[in-house]
Specification:
By secondary structure, the chain is of the alpha+beta class. The chain folds into two domains: 4-198 and 369-456, 3-Layer(aba) Sandwich (Aminopeptidase); 200-254 and 300-367, Alpha-Beta Plaits (2-Layer Sandwich), CATH 3.30.70.360. Helix content is 35%, strand content 22%. The protein contains 13 helices and 18 strands. Strand 4 and strand 5 (112-116) form a beta hairpin. The protein is globular, with a radius of gyration of 23 Å. The protein binds ligand BES and zinc ion. Zinc ion (ZN) is lined by residues 85, 122-123, 156, 183.
Length: 458
């Protein structure tokens, strides 16, 4: 069984593969908003049917939250698990989209053809590259060169609340030699990457409540406690002037960046001016003393993702709000403990809440950073396969985003993950006008076909 005819089939089948992806993209499977629960179910059903259509024994598995999809395809050689997520981020602000987010369009852009829509790059387009690679292996050779178990989650974008019990209950079914995860990007537009470490994440929302109703800011201002004022003070207290997070114990478990690692990353040719320039910025804004690459790959952060309170509509309204709230995410590295940090954060906030005001905390997930043991021989085989497809040596890099499952695969199943994906910096993950390059989809499918072939080589 050779990969060459499989690659030719992938090339020929590309228009149909794009149509299948568009069908999945039309399902608005936003996991963070309960209004879309049925859509998440529909996306899971769609995937089950798709896997069955290529011969897999696949089913939708209920959880207390959104369902998982698990499927098995027989083959020769070693057994691998493939993970992707079918849920997507909310679309707002909707008015910033040039096309409706769930009506995926093929568009010509100066940099090539793209598929535009929510979930194109994160993660439906990426997930389908693997499914299409399997489809074409089977179409060509009648079976896969390796045994594959598919595992699709529907809650990745909302902190994976059902994942731990699901992995514990289904450990024997899901534990394979290695996991393949397609939810990350290329190093740059031309160079593929295998991700050696991901940051963890702690999501916290704080809601401050003061007076029993909104108040006239003249009649009560100066006498009544103002939740926005307190919230601003709390948020401002979380960093010092050098950009460091002030929560006691926050840096426990953060490893020093070794001079070797610094030099290695320095030699990757990462261009900070372009990275920031592409989004209209020019000055790295994190902790003093770290490059933008180091700050996103190797340092923890505390970022504010959303804030509400009072009147922010057109015009002006002199009001003291009864309530103000903020959503905060911490990115974690090394051995930082999300639960300890959560407790220390909440204690720091509580100390700053004055009388006549109460605070509520809402949890939005907690996962540790993960670091892969890259000694497993399948890492080198994957690297060789990617290098063949992209024509430039694949690099081992890190990623600033979080994929909680990678850590749980290690801690619960004792399984490492090979993280490879085809996204580009300008894909607009979590933003309006998200897109996935047709090149990413096409070469990504070819890449997985090659990876499957290489893994089978023994
Ligand atoms: N695909 C991303 C993770 C990612 C982004 C990896 C960029 C590498 C580069 C993933 O779907 C994601 O966005 N995860 C969330 C997880 C969180 C809600 C726990 C994230 O990182 O914000
Ligand atoms: Zn994703």
């Amino acid at each position: 069984m050779t990969v060459t005819p499989v690659l030719a089939r992938i090339d020929q089948d590309l228009p149909q593969a794009i149509q299948r992806l568009q069908a999945l993209l039309r399902i608005p499977s936003i996991s963070t908003d309960p209004a879309y629960n049925d859509a998440c179910d529909d996306a899971a059903d769609w995937l089950v049917e798709e896997l069955q259509s290529i011969g897999a024994d696949a089913s939708k598995r209920p959880t207390p939250g959104r369902p998982m999809v698990v499927g098995h395809l027989d083959g020769d050689g070693p057994e691998v698990l493939f993970y992707g997520h079918y849920d997507v981020q909310p679309v707002d602000p909707l008015d910033l989209w040039d096309t409706p987010p769930f009506e995926p369009e093929l568009q010509d852009t100066p940099k090539g053809k793209v598929i535009r829509g929510r979930g194109t790059a994160d993660d439906k387009g990426q997930l389908m590259t693997f499914v299409e690679a399997c489809r074409n292996w089977i179409a060509e050779h009648g079976r896969l060169p390796v045994k594959v178990t598919f595992f699709f989650e529907g809650e990745e974008e909302s902190g994976s609340p059902s994942l731990i019990p699901f992995l514990e209950e289904n450990a024997d079914e899901l534990r394979k030699e290695v996991a393949l995860i397609c939810d990350t990007g290329l190093f740059n537009d031309k160079v593929p990457a295998i991700i050696a470490s991901l940051r963890g994440m702690l999501g916290q929302e704080i809601i401050l409540r003061g007076a029993s109703r909104d108040l006239h800011s003249g009649h009560y201002g100066g006498a009544a406690a103002n939740p926005i004022k307190v919230l601003s003070h709390i948020l401002a207290s979380l960093h010092d002037e050098s950009g460091r997070v002030t929560i006691p114990g926050f840096y426990d478990g953060v490893p020093e960046l070794s001079p070797e690692r610094r030099a290695e990353w320095g030699s990757l040719g990462f261009d900070t001016a372009t990275f920031l320039g592409d989004v209209g910025l020019s000055h790295p804004a994190g902790e003093d003393g770290f490059s933008a690459l180091e700050a996103t790959w190797a340092r923890p952060t505390c970022e504010f993702n959303g804030i509400r309170g009072g009147y922010a509509g057109d015009g002006f309204k002199t009001v003291l709000p009864a309530e103000a709230a903020a959503k905060i995410s911490f990115r974690l590295v090394g051995d930082q403990d999300p639960y300890k940090i959560c407790a220390a954060f909440q204690a720091q906030v509580r100390r700053l809440v004055p009388p006549d005001m109460e605070v509520e905390f809402v949890d939005h997930g907690a996962s540790k950073a993960s670091m892969m043991q890259m000694e497993h021989p399948l890492f080198d085989k994957t690297k060789a396969a990617l290098t063949e497809e992209w024509g430039l040596p694949a690099t081992f890099t890190a990623a600033g985003g979080s994929i909680p499952v990678a850590g749980y695969f290690q801690s619960i199943l004792g399984m490492d993950s090979i993280l490879a994906g085809w996204g580009k910096d300008d894909d607009g993950l979590h933003s309006p006008n998200e897109k996935y390059d047709v090149e990413s989809f096409h070469k990504g499918t070819r890449s997985w076909a090659r990876v499957l072939g290489k893994i089978a080589e023994g």
